[in-house]
From TrEMBL:
The keyword Plastid does not apply. GO terms for molecular function: kinase activity. Keywords: Kinase, Transferase. The keyword Transferase applies. It comes from Mammaliicoccus lentus. This is Glycerate kinase. NCBIfam families: glycerate kinase (TIGR00045). InterPro entries: Glyc_kinase_flavodox-like_fold, Glycerate_kinase, Glycerate_kinase_RE-like, Glycerate_kinase_sf.
Amino acid sequence: MKIVVVPSGFKESLSAEEVGNSISRGIKKVNPYHDVTTIPMVDGGEGFVDTITKLKEGKKVKTQVMGPVGKPIKSFFGVFEENGIKTAVIEMAAIAGLRHVPQNMRNPLNTTTFGVGETIIKALDNGAERILIGCGDSGTSDGGVGMAQALGIKFLNENGETVFINGGGEINRIYGIDMSYMDARVHLVDIDVAVNWTNLLCGQKGVARVYGPQKGASPENVELLSNNLEHLAKLIKSLKKEDVSLMNGGGASGGLGAGLYGFLNARLHPRFEIIMKYIEISDAIQNADLVITAEGCIDFQTPNGKIPSEVARIAKMHKKPVIAFAGTIGHNAKINYQSGIDAFSSIIPEPTTLENSILDADKWLENCSENALRHITIGINLGNQMVAAKDVVQ
């Protein structure tokens, strides 16, 4: 049997490559002769730099920047050259991702994207002529204001005085924007950003309401963040003469998408569109008998451009069955049956803690894939028996 495994990573636990390896081991336990092709996928979050840089035979540059809670962290960006152009690859998750926010400090009112701006400066110092940014797995919701400050953009209060904005909870202090001090090199490079295309900055489906609680925001904090991001959208409109409040991808990484577009004139792209320029999966899926995908959580949001649904969409173009594994099965996950996923299951075998789930995810993935393949093998054998019996009767 030809099986293609196209997984995403499990946040704060396993990379996409590690997920694929675990699933492959489970398959081989059932039958070591199964032809398994593993294609790890990234969605702009964790693993974005490693994957793109490896594919382009580039290198990683180690850095130290301000983390999301205002303390220095060790981070990195990637660099590769193609057609004579030097491209820097930046992964938001490696700078201001949720994993860099301690559990007891998770409150997007107080986290910043300042380190993203610092990394852009370091990429420019490294000679980057193009910058590719992956937005995902963020622990912030400051609309890119922190990033802008690191690049020299100044925010003014109602008295016209420069104020330092530390997190999404302080955006309402901004009454004016002074772009004159921004690092001029930003205007000389192309900046492309991989985003979740369905993430919006404002409204009932705005990023504060959808993702704020996952980042530690209370209901009251969600309302404050939502109002502040609406305020930011008005400020950007006065600056750019464009409304970013409902712009596709504007809500990516807590509004960083809108900030990159509004302050740096970056181009936003559906993240899967960017990834598919570097990773080819269509041919492998077309030649497979079965497609397996995976992600940390499968729920009502999965059809909105997440890897399992995008893999399933391509698989259905070739009429291939799709199984998805997840750490957790969330609210209204059944909607994924409509997006091409034929079956999904959680890898967690028993009630457990988050810490144990993170530690045991590789073992559970292996066991889950083994069990799934054993069920499939039973189905194949039963089908063969029924065909044989029919032939005897005839």
